[in-house]
Amino acid sequence: MAENGIGASVRRKEDYRFITGGGQYVDDINRPGQAYAYFLRSPHAHAAIRGIDASQALAAPGVLAVLTGDDVKAAGWGGLICGWMVKSKDGSDMKAGPHPILCQGKARYVGDPVAMVVAETYLQAKDAAELVEVDYDVLPACVATDKADQPGQPQVHDGIANNAVYNWELGDKAAVDAAIAAAAHVTKLDFVNNRLVPNAMEPRAAIGDYDRASNGFTLHTTSQNPHVARLVISAFVGVAPEHKLRVIAPDVGGGFGSKIFIYNEECACLLASRMVRRPVKWTAERSESFVSDAHGRDHVTHAELAMDRDGRFTALRVHTKANMGAYLSTFASCVPTYLYATLLAGQYKTPAIYCEVDAVYTNTTPVDAYRGAGRPEATFLLETIVETAAKELGVDPAELRRRNFIEPSAFPYQTPVALVYDIGNYGAHLDKALELADYAGFAGRRAKSEARGKLRGVGFSCYIEACGIAPSAVVGSLGAGVGLWESAKIRFTHTGVCQVLTGTHTHGQGHETTFAQLIADKLGVPIDNVEVVHGDTDKTPVGMGTYGSRSLAVGGQAIVNAAEKIIAKGKKIAAHLLEAAEADIEFQNGSFTVKGTDRSKSLGEVVFEAYVPHHIPQGLVEPGMEETAFYDPANFTYPSGTYICEVEVDQDTGVVEIDRFVAVDDFGKVINPMIVEGQVHGGLAQGIGQALIEGCVYDEAGQLLSASYMDYCMPRADGLPDFQIATTETPCTHNTLGVKGCGEAGAIGSPPAVMNAITDAIGVRVSMPATPEKVWRALQNRQMPQAAE
Amino acid sequence: MAKVSMTVNGQNVTRDVEPRTLLVEFLRQHLDLTGTHVGCDTSQCGACVVHLDGRSVKACTMLAVQCEGAKVMTIEGLAQNGELHPMQAAFREHHGLQCGFCTPGMIMSAIDLVQHNPSPSEDEIRHWLEGNLCRCTGYHNIVKAIKAGAASMGG
Amino acid sequence: MYAFEFHRPSSVADAIAALKAASDGKLMAGGQTLIPTLKQRLAQPSDVIDLGGIKELHGIRQDGNSLVIGAMAKHGEVAGSDLVKSVIPGLHELAGLIGDPQVRNRGTIGGSLANSDPAADYPAAVLALNATIKTDRRSIAADDYFTGLFQTALADDELITAISFPRPEACGYAKFRNPASRYAIVGVMVARTGGGVRVAVTGAGPCAFRLPDFERALAGSFSADALAGLSVSPSGLNSDMHASAEYRAHLVRVMAQRAVKAVR
C-alpha cells in the first residue's frame, strides 16, 4: 500500500482552510457592484393572488427593482421541473403541476416566493419588502398526507384531480395476495414516517451575475451538483444556452440532499442580475430555510408481512401515501418509488413483494430527497414489521432475521422488487454487532435498570441500501431524465504535480482527501502534490454531482479509470525512453520498470518527457499528460449492516436515553476509515434525530409551527451517545475499487433500531419522533385498565 | 450612523455603522472576516461564536455598537505566525469537522470551555456544546477533538 | 431589524432620562431575548438604551444574610461565583442551566426578570427564595412581581437595579427543558426558608407561580414522598407542540419531587 493510499486514515487536506476561517462559502463571496435580494414569501398556505402593488417599495431607499411572476413571464423564462418521470399503474404520466420561479396568480405553500426586492443593501431590500402590497384571497389549505386525495379536499393544482400525482405499483400483486391468504401468520402495521427539515448548517445562498459582454451568466450557488443545476436552469428554465451559463458551487456547508435541487431563488437572482445589470446576491435566513428547503420523508403506510409456520417470510404487501408538498421538486417523484419500493426485500429472501404508492400534492413545502431518500422509509417499515413479527411469534428478533437472510452463497440475488444484489454477508455483521453490543448481557442490564425504576429495551435494524446511484440504462428505464455516470480528468503538469477534476461535489465528505488517496495509491503521487478540483462547470468535465452515496463508487472509479489511462500512456513513453517493449513495462509505486530489471523511469520523468517531448518520435503519443474518463457502472452498490440500539426510559417523564448504539456496516473496501466513520456518525445522528426529536408540525391552515430552532429539535451533543462503530467487508463486485458507499447508511439504518428499542422497553409502539410526552402517554395508557371492556 | 471602535484579533478598528448592525455583520461585511458564520436567526446554532473580552458569545446576538472598546477574537485570529492553535490542530487530527460551517464556532466555544475547565470530561464537553449545532459529525469526533485539544492546551 | 437610535448611558439616571426622552424606547440588558426579537422584526423601538455601561448595576455581594445580585450580573457570573455557590448553592446550579454557555455569557438576571418570559428559569428562584426586586425607585416583593404573561409589576420607565435573595436554609431546582429552545418546559424550585417552605414553578403557566398545596405537604414532611399523592390541575397551564397542559401538570409534580431530592 502506498503511504497515504487506500486504507489509510489520512488527515483531511481540506481542513486547514476550515479551521482557520478560510473557507469560501457562497455568502463569503462578494462580487464588485453587488446588489442584494430579499424574497417576499406567501404567509398563506393557499391563496389566490389578486394583485401586487410594488410602487411604494420601488420608491423606498436603495431599491433597484421589484420582481414578480409577471417579470419571469415577460422574460420568457419557464418554471422548475421534476426530472424523473413516474408513470401510474394505468400507464399514464405523473401529473406535474406548473412550478413558477415566482408565484403566478396563486401561492401554494407558506414560503412560496411571491416577489423579489433588489436593493443596494440587504436591509434596504428587506425593509422595502414590507411595502409591497399583495392582495391575497386566502383559500382553504390541503395539509394532511393521508387525507389529501380524498374527495372534498382543497385542490392544490387546477386540473389535477384529488391532488393525485401518481398511483404507482411494483411487484406481483396476485402472488402477494395469494401468499398472504395462505399464510400461517400475518403481521400488520400502520406507519407514519415523519416529515423532516434537512437543516444543513449553511443556509442556501446564490449570486446571479449577468455579463453583458458575453451575454452570459455566472451563478454562485450552494449546490451538490453544479452541472445538473446548469442543465436544468439552461434547458428547462431557459435562462441561457448551457455554454452561456457557468455554475460555481464553492465550499458548501452540508447538503444532505437539500442542495441537489434547483430552487426558485437562484433562478430569480439570474433574472434580477440581468434586469439591474449588477450581480445580485441572496442568502437565506434560517427561517426561510425552514419553509423553502425541500423537506424529507412524510409517508403514511400500511404494511402486511406474511410468514409460514416456521417464521419464514412469504410475502410483503405495502400501501404508501407520499406527500410531495405543493410542487414536484427536482427528483421528488423517484424518492417514494424507485428509491423506496425497490428496497423492500431488505436482507431477506421474501419471495413475493407488492408495493403501491399514491403520491399527493398538499399545500406544504415541497418534499424531496433527504439523506437516504426513500431507503430510510423502506428500512423503517421493514425492520419495524420484522421486529414486531418476532415479538408476535415469540422468536428472538436476531434469530428471526437470520432465518430469513439471503445466504452469502445466493449472490448475485434477484429480488422480487427489481434489484439484483451483487454481494453481501448479512450474518457476518449481525454476529459482530451482537458481540459489540454485548447482547448476551442485555437481560442483566435490563434487570439493573428495573432496579433503578427505569425501563430498558433493545432494538435491531438490519438495513440494506442501494447506492452509488448510477447505472444510466437502469435509471433511464425507470424514468430518470438524465444519465447517472460520473467523470474525472487527471491533469499532470511539467513538474509532475497533478489536478484531479471531478464531476462530483464535496460538501463535507472529504473528497479532496479520499480522491487524492486514490491518486497516491494508483500513481504513487504524494497527496500533497494532488489538488482535487470540483464545483465549477467551467473547470471540471461534465458530471452529475454528489448524492445517493455515489461519489466514490462512481466518481472515484472514474478517477481510477483515468489513472489507468495515464499509466497506459506513460508505459508507451517509458518503453521508448528505456528502449524496451511496451509489454515489458510494469508500473508500480510511481515508477515504470522494465520487467525483471532495475531499469526504470519515474512517473515524474515520464510526465516531463510528455510535456517536453524532445526524445519522442513523431506519432508515438500525443504530447501532454492529461486523461479523462467517464464511468457508468453495471449496477448499484449494496451496503448493508446491523445496528443495535439500547435505550433506557424514564417512566416518570417519558424521556428516552440511548445507552448504547452499535453500528456494523459493510461498505466493501474502505479508502479512508477515519472519513467513513465520520460519515456513519453523522448519519446516525440524523437517524436518531428522526426517531427521537425531529419532526415538522403543520397546523390545519398549513402554517409550519416547527419553523425555527426554537421549536424544531436538532440533535445536540448532549443527546447522543458515544457510538460504537465497526465494519465487515464484502467488496463490491462491479467496480475495481470494491467500494460501495457510506454517506447515507447511518440515517437509513438507525431509526428502526431506536424505535424497536423503545417498543421493547415500554411494550407499545409510538410514532416518530418518540417525544417524552408520547412515551409518557403510552406508558399511562398501558398502565390504565381498559375501562370500556 | 454611529462610530464604533474595538480591537479585533489584536488590531484596532474603527468604523461608522448603523446601530442595528450585528457584531457578526460587522465582522463579515465591514472587516471581511468571513470565518465567523451565520447559521440561524434565533441565536441557537453557534456558528457565529467569537470571543468578547475572552469569553465566548454569539456574534449574531450582539450589536457592533455594544462592543465599543472591547477585545474581539475570531477564528482568523487564533493561529499565531502560521502555527495552529492546539484546538484547531485537534479538530483536524480527530476529524472534528466535515463541511466546516459550524467549525469556527465550535472551536471558539471549545477554547472558552477549556480556559475555565482545563480538563473537561466527555460529559462536560457534551453539555457545554448546547449552544453549538453541527449537522455533519454527530458530535462524536468533535467531543474527541475537544478532549484532545484541552490536553494539548495544557489541561 | 428595524433602524433605531442607540444609547449607552453610564448611570441609571441617564438611562431613565434616555428612556423618557424616547418616543418608544427599550432598555437592553444582555440582549439575549431583545436582539432575537428585533431580528425577527417583532418589535420596533425608536431607541435602544444599552445598560452595559452602568457600573452600579454590576456585581454580586453578600449583605448580611442576603445575597445581592446586580441586575447586570450575567448568568455565567452567577453560575461561576464561589460566593453564590457557598450562600445559595441551588441558585448557583440554576444559573448554570440557563440557555447555553454563550447565552449565559451575555444574558443577565435583571434582563431575564424584566422580560418575565414564562419559560425563563430565574423567576422560579425569585419566587421560591422570596427575593426582593430592587428598582431605581422601590423594592418589590417576589410575590407581587410576576403579574402575567410577559407582565410584571414594573412601571414602563422603571429599571431593575438588583435582586436581593435572602439566604434559605436549603433549596433545589429541577428543570425539564424544551429539547429545541432549552427553555424550561417545567422548572421547579423548592426552598426551605425562615418563613417556611416555598415551591415555585416556571414554564408551566403564563408566569411563575407558587404551589401552596405542595408547600403545605413539604412543611409537614420535607421529602419527595410527601408530594407523591399530589397533583396539579392542567387548567390554565401552557400547551404547545412540545408539551400539553396535562403533561406539564404531571411534570410539575415530578420536577418538584426531583427538586426536593436536589435540595442542598
Task: Describe the structure in your own words.
The complex is a heterotrimer of chains A (789), B (155) and C (264). By secondary structure, chain A is an alpha+beta fold. Chain A folds into 3 domains: 140-396, Aldehyde Oxidoreductase, domain 4 (2-Layer Sandwich); 419-468 and 635-789, Aldehyde Oxidoreductase, domain 4 (2-Layer Sandwich), CATH 3.30.365; 485-631, Aldehyde oxidase/xanthine dehydrogenase, molybdopterin binding domain (Aldehyde Oxidoreductase, domain 4). Chain A has 19 helices and 28 strands. Chain A has a 7-stranded mixed beta sheet, sandwiched between helices. Chain A has a 5-stranded mixed beta sheet with strand order 7-15-14-13-8, with helices on both faces. Chain A is globular. With 155 residues, chain B is of the alpha+beta class. A 5-stranded mixed beta sheet of chain B has the order 2-1-5-3-4, sandwiched between helices. Chain C has 2 domains: 5-50, 2-Layer Sandwich (Uridine Diphospho-n-acetylenolpyruvylglucosamine Reductase, domain 2), CATH 3.30.43.10; 58-262, Uridine Diphospho-n-acetylenolpyruvylglucosamine Reductase, domain 3 (2-Layer Sandwich), CATH 3.30.465.10. In chain C, strands 4-5-10-6-7 form a 5-stranded antiparallel beta sheet. In chain C, strands 11-12-13-14 form a 4-stranded antiparallel beta sheet, with helices on both faces.
